[in-house]
Amino acid sequence: MEESPAVDVKSLHAALDHAREEKGLSWRQLAKELDVSASTLSRMVNGLKPDVSAFAAMTTWLKMPADSFFRMSPSTDEEPELVVQLAPLLRARRDLDDKDVEYLEELIGGAVRRFRADRLKD
What we know:
CATH architecture: Orthogonal Bundle
Strand order of the largest sheet: 1-2
């Protein structure tokens, strides 16, 4: 199965939502800060990708590299790994240092592996 790059819109939207709440902004205020339409942000809830300019504005505002929100995925709708989805959100947290993020990634990864193992037993 061929893999193609994709923007992880859910993770990007979640990172924006978290940062927006931390700064006490409404979605309209965030849209104004990003210089994008409010509808661009609301369409992301439904998984629609922002255009390149909006994507660049969002990642710049988040102070996160754009590739934090790229993932290689099969052309099916297969769910990405949970740790992969959460990593950009964890890295965006100002109250977590690199060691904290690594610890949480290990902890979450271990829990996911255990859940899978338990399901295989059933």
